[in-house]
Design brief:
12 strands; elongated; D-Maltodextrin-Binding Protein, domain 2; alpha/beta
């Protein structure tokens, strides 16, 4: 007996409109026009003979029937997406597409990636660092490391690590004409900035310092370049713990002070439901957690800079 199916091309439009409760946002997500979303939903309602949305001048909301249908359609589309990933996995079994930020890639992931390759010689990693959350289906991404508040929709999200922020610098700045011994010594040194939610103004206020310009110094858009500037002795950076851990362990950077501020945002490993059925994804996911645990152990054993 043939299945009784709705117009399948209308389902993604309905799903997006139901999730956002906005035809405009649904159109932006699917790269369609507002009119295309409206027509798709109207066509679906006519075929079903059921009103799915209540429409007002400045709002749309799901009817009870629409809410029940949206839950089932969303779950079905998630299953289709997961099945698509599994079905196409054999086409590129040896290539793993990873999405993350340039800072995490450059200062944490890439310096350690040789260990993953050594253990998994049949898997070739492709890194994307666009700074935009990738669409796993459209962009062909297998797994992502995201920095944020968590709660990512439609995917599996696992907590990887938290992060704190504290001043870091080249060890040579602990010596010389103006050695860094206490926070007030920062007035003699250049501050290094990069765009982040915790800035020098917040740290200096917590340290009780109001006579140091929190905006002076050099600024980078890229966290990776900001860390490299600190390694080269260009000044003192508010270093994010995950991004400076390798440099601290190697002695290229030191923490001159104890005061650290905890970030509310954290790192998460994110992948589509069912992706761990692919060996390449599971191998990389397991390696990430193992490597992060080792990194945190090294960080605990890295002493604070000894003052001369």
């Amino acid at each position: 007996m043939p299945r009784r199916l709705p117009p399948l091309t209308a389902l993604p439009a309905f799903d997006a409109a139901a999730r956002h409760l906005s035809f405009t946002k649904a159109a932006a997500e699917l790269n369609l026009t507002h009119g295309a979303i409206s027509r798709a939903v109207r066509n679906l309602e006519e075929r079903l003979g059921v009103r799915l949305f209540e429409r007002g001048t400045r709002f749309v909301r799901l009817t009870p029937a629409g809410a029940a249908y949206a839950a089932e359609v969303g779950a079905a589309l998630d299953r289709i997406g997961a099945a698509t990933i599994v079905a196409t996995a054999s086409r590129s079994a040896g290539v793993l597409n990873v999405s993350t930020s340039d800072g995490f890639a450059g200062r944490w992931l890439v310096p350690r990636l040789h260990r993953f390759h050594r253990e998994n010689r049949d898997i070739d990693v492709r890194l994307s660092t666009s700074g935009v959350h990738a669409d796993f289906i459209r962009d062909g991404v297998d797994i992502a490391i995201r920095y944020g508040a968590g709660g990512y929709e439609g995917v599996v999200s696992e907590f990887l690590t938290e992060e704190d922020v504290s001043p870091v610098c080249n060890p040579e700045l602990l010596q010389g004409e103006h050695p860094l011994r206490q926070p007030s010594d920062l007035r003699h040194h250049r501050l290094i900035h990069h765009d982040f939610r915790i800035d020098w103004a917040m740290w200096l206020q917590r340290a009780g310092l109001d006579d140091i310009d929190p905006n002076g110094g050099v600024r980078f858009d890229s966290a990776a370049y900001a860390v490299e500037a600190a390694v080269q002795g260009e000044g003192v950076l508010l270093g994010r713990s995950a991004l400076v851990s390798a440099d601290l362990a190697a002695g290229r950077l030191v923490r001159p002070f104890d005061l650290a501020l905890e970030s509310r945002w954290k790192y998460y490993v994110v992948y589509p439901d069912g992706a761990l059925r692919q060996r390449k994804v599971k191998a990389f996911r397991d390696w990430l957690f193992s490597e992060m645990a080792a990194s945190q152990k090294d960080a605990q054993q890295t002493p604070r800079a000894r003052q001369a």
